[in-house]
Fold each of these.
Amino acid sequence: MNQHEQVEHLFRHEYGKLVALLSRRMSIQHIDAIEDAVQWSLTQALEFWCRDSIPNNPSAWLYQVAYRHLLSEFRVKKRRGSLLTKHFIIDDEAQEHEEIPFSGEISNSMLRVLFVACNEAIPIESQLVFTLKSLCGFSIREISFRLFITEANVYKRFGRAKQHLKNQTIELDSLTDAELNDRLPSIHRVLYLVFTEGYLSSHPDRAIRQDLCKEAIRLATLLAESKLGNVPDSYALLALMYFHLARIQTREDDFGALLLLEQQDRHKWNKQQITLGMTFLAQSGSGDTISRYHVEAGIAAEHCLSPSFKQTRWDNIVASYELLERIAPSPLHLLNRAIATAEWKDPHAGLAVLNSSDMPNWLNRSYYWYAVQADLVFRCGETARGREYAKLAIDEAPTEQIKQLLFKRLLKR
Amino acid sequence: MKNKTYMCILRSETGGCEQPSPSEMEIVYAKYQAWQQKFADNIVDMGNKLGSVGSVVRHDGVSDGPFIELKEVIGGYMMITAATLDEAIAVIKASPMVSNTGTSIEIREICTP
């Protein structure tokens, strides 16, 4: 990594931490000013660090620059009389708050902002967009990719969440446990999506982003250890994350290309992490409700315990996806069930599952859909139909070069 | 307190506890499976329970997830790290995936919907 890349890499990590810390200290109502200050500190860093060198403690440097910028903005507003002063007595507290935060405080702040942002008064999709962007450093493009919505829509939802947070008058401390408890499903979903992005990234340079996976696990652990988050769903989510983490090192070859499940060296799967996942799974298996995380963790466990690809109990996996379709309906589960069925029985059976129900438009155009269709159709020996899908793929391809390449690869063979 | 076991296992990461054997793992997993099976056997009941507690169904829309089948089983799909299409082709050619006879690999740039 050169200096510039290093700085960019750091920014992704620092953004959410800075927003969380400053929101904690200044109240989330000032979210716009806070984000401006964070961005200011990052542009300052770009200018100074690339010219001189990266300081020993970049996080502290960024925090101080952002904090000072925020204070000076507040002073200007105060002079103009356009700011309520009840939230902070700037000059007395300024010195104390400028001290470098310690890591425990950062984690607590992030968890806190998660609870603030995952407020049911904000539409769920807006909550997600806000936390993914402001706390987890996702780009608009990454969010659009993960939630299957357009980038314009992401912006709109982000704006809506911010608008709500700015007008928020109730402080987190005054909420009851029951009210905070209602926010857990959204928090789980945000952590799940952060993990998903890490597991197989939409980022052009890095297919697997372990840093994001570990960040999600860190926050999920904090959540499970907290008084409110100590619930079966949190443990199921942690189990799911550990089962995937255990395999992560074996999913890339020396060239950075991804290896499929069948090609992974199962001896290198991390046994301690699988054990940890199993411990969490056992802890999660209690109570009267089951979540998608339970079932997905069960599927991941099935793969982790299987001695080989061939010996995988695909029938169990098919049954789990059926259950998943009922408790958390999504056509993606049908795609997964089709794949598992093809392994359990044969590609024809898989294809029958795939074609057993109509797919929504967004999925019909998704590359997931083309991949599964093309794979199963070719495996069924239906070259002609395979070609049709190939043609469709070419029509949908975004650039001329890719259309050319697809033509050569798929239709001229 | 539930956290008890968890602490023990965490220590094992630095070499404290012994690794459970595969059969011990199976026993733990089977217990979990038995719990999960209750729900599969009684879908209607489960739906009601979920509805009243409002744990997942109410809030959950469609989103992507870390699906092993979709992302790691299907041969037609993999993602690679490359700056350009040419580089992507070079990476693919160097990987063991193309050594399987009869496989052809389609390369598509991932675009947002």
Amino acid sequence: MGQLIIGCLGLLLIFGVIYMIGWLLYHAAPYLLSAAALYGAAIALRNYGLAFANNVKPGRRAP
Amino acid sequence: MSAIQEPAVKSYFFGKGYRDLQATIAESWSRNLVSARKELEAARRLWSGTYLAKGGAILRATASLSVILFGTAFFLAFSILHIAVLLAFFLLIYLGFTIVYLVERGYLAWRKLSTVCPECHEKIALPEYFCPGCGEIHRRLIPSQYGILHHVCVKCGTRLPATFFLRHGELQARCPNPACGYLLKAGHVESRKVFIPIFGGPSVGKSAYLFAAVQGLAAEAPRLGFSPFFVDTHSEGEFARARQELGRGRPPAKTLASLPRAFSLELRRNGQGSRVLYLYDPAGEAFGETEGLVLHKYQEYLSGLIFLIDPFTIPAVQLEYQDRLSGARDALKPSALPAEDALGRIFINLEEHFGQSRTARLKLPVALVINKVDAFNLEDRIGERAVRARAAANPTTDPDTLRNELIRGQLVRWDQGSLVQQLETRCVRVRYYTCSSLGRMPDSTARPFEGRGMLAPLMWILGTADAGFFQSIHPT
């Protein structure tokens, strides 16, 4: 009987852990994906900034 | 029409700004592709690992996609902003140089400032300027996309003033006419000018008249309130040579050029600016046939005209002085071309080539000047001595009127009525004068020639053509 209870509790715990992970994944995924997208956007912004700094040189200078 | 390549640095907002934008877009795109590829590679590596690594792979792939998506969005948004900034400055600069250019042109037109080549006689809208640093030729030194107030020479980096207001006329310039290219001095460029040719047949004494008049002008300048300056070294050298010759009792050399270079002299008045006097002395042979005057483009913009005649071309005068004339023929060198013929050719030429209507009357002042009145007793008959005698007898009458009546009457008596009629029918303002451009008959001595009577017709024309500047002048 004791073993049965322990087994059930174990199953419950496993289910709980899986549920917890699933719950966490379900709720965190959009944030993670958003973070990844923001990271990508930051890279794109940095790339434009670098390209701008390299190429845009206003002013009238004799060669 | 091919655009002239100006050797100046173009405003950033008229060329390089757009090239920079293009290069920025290209570089940001290539950087985005590199970044996206890097993230995708990382995702691929992680995908083969644990579940956690697979989760990381999904995130890196998301980042890769994001780089492409946001990269596109950013370059679109920033390019629009970039173009907007470029266009705003483009419009500001365009407006700036258009306003400065229009104000400059308006001011030049209002003050009647123009550029005329003394060599080919073209009226020049825009001379070609030399860069003072490297000598490069700037053909369009005006407020433009190359600069509103200054242009920067592409060769040496020198800043050149691009507008009249910053005195770009003081730079060395040249005539843009490819067949001419005459080096223009500051006085030739964008200054107020008076154009007076001295017309007349061969040997009427035009060159001697010109130099004696300039000499008289220089001598009288302080009294008249002027400071005369030679605009170019050519005129100065020519004048110095002629003065030397006249001082040695030798008449100036005969003019050979049918198309003369303008003799230019600047007259400055304190606080009233200056006028540049262009005097033309074409060879008398140019009046021998109508075609001889076709190239004399200065006839388009004349301020006045001095028509010089030699009294010894008149048959009646030859007859009157025939006993003394034979002995003095070498000294007098009577002109071979009748005055009426020379005058007729001037009018025909003005009609055929310079838009003068056959029925219209010339409004510019025309001075008919009888030269060589030092000969025999002409001074007592029609010269200033005779005018003074008349004035003494008629103190209430204006001496100018008396002079006109005296000379005009004598011309009519010498059977030159048709000359007088032609002149007075075709011209609104005519005055008659006499002069002796050498002051005495040429002989073998070295006594200096001292002309007299040249200044009065010149000053009358100047006073009539530009009353505001020359109004207070009353030459003796």
